[in-house]
């Protein structure tokens, strides 16, 4: 038998008084005064952080963050005065207001502050001195549907906003959120649903529900729901008690206290979120709106999450996406309220699936046939969804109001006139996103100064041209 002894055990086995020398490879040392034949060079590969940063900046949209007011010493950089426009109110949702720009005022329970917005919308709000949007025909139609949903179960009002990229689906969804919040609804708004399935939060398997819980995401969701709907949740109580992980909540506990406890402890956040949704399904006092942007991301057959065998996890095996799928399919329902989702057609990681396109009756980017691959489970979750198409173009009246708003906010470097408006409206084909980003904001690139014989160098140097 051969025994493998460690160096420490060998040293202990030597007779007393024997010196155990350290393991030093003296043959590899360079003699004094000589240069080592082995030279280690710093190899700069293409995967260095600097190159990665430069590569990511190639087509990245700027953050447009405001500078510190103490640094704005130049008069042209002084903070602008806020735009003057009417506030977004349910009373203004009339046909006479179509084409008017209204402002989203900051309130203590501001959904934009706590829930957030899609990235492009966030950047627009950073550029403008006042957060605002334009009232369109589809805005009035959506408000009428929400008025009807205030007295009907949510399984009867399940809409999906569809349309080409940049037509204004996310803005319409935000208008629906603001409208319901002003009508004192309970609002659950998820502006970036792909964060639930792109493996950016922790997940753990739960034997009780046989799904993968997302404790950190559930904790954040509870905190946001509580901040926006604290007043309404204070008036609702639990019908049944809850005991989980050495925490107990008796019947009669307010939903605000329940959500507050879950928002502070990720160990119980998933169970608390499930209990909160269950209690909201039992009460018929206050309508509930569940609004989800990037709605198609939870209908893909695979997510970016992986199980212990490194196989892709299905969206209906994740706890929070499964809740949304159950409400979207009508398997769960609020006694009063509505479910509204918005598709994002420009996300190649999570495209619009065949199951959604078949149910909504919308054409896809690629042709599909009855033999195209489909999931029976996702078809079941998509059954009953109704299509609410968003107009692909601004009407001239709506575009003129948006153009005037940006003009009054000093976003145009070119002279503002009818020719410029018609040029940008034509170039963008009326598409709302293209009209703002490629049209109006495209003028920030500026044109070269006209130099003639009377132009002097001081004028060019001081920028007086």
Report on the structure:
Helices cover about 35% and strands about 10% of the residues. By secondary structure, the protein is an alpha/beta fold. The strands form four sheets. A five-stranded parallel β-sheet has the order 4-9-10-3-11, sandwiched between helices. The termini are far apart. The model is unreliable at about 1-5, about 25-30, about 40-60 and about 445-465 (pLDDT under 50). This is Small ribosomal subunit protein mS29. Belongs to the mitochondrion-specific ribosomal protein mS29 family. InterPro entries: P-loop_NTPase, Ribosomal_mS29.
The helical percent reads 25-40%
N-end to C-end Cα span: 93 Å
Give, in spatial order, the strands making up the sheet with the most strands: 4-9-10-3-11
Indicate the structural class: alpha/beta
Instruction: State the total count of DSSP E strands.
Output: 11
Largest sheet: 5 strands, parallel
What letter string, H or E per element, gives the SSE order?
Answer: HHEHHEHEHEEEHEEHHEHEHHEHHHH
Strand content: 5-15%
- The residue-averaged pLDDT reads 83
Radius of gyration from CA coordinates: 30 Å
Number of helices: 16
Low-confidence stretches: 1-6, 24-28, 38-59, 447-465
Q: Shape, please?
A: globular
Organism: Lentinula boryana
Keywords: Mitochondrion, Ribonucleoprotein, Ribosomal protein, Transit peptide
Protein name: Small ribosomal subunit protein mS29
Family: Belongs to the mitochondrion-specific ribosomal protein mS29 family.
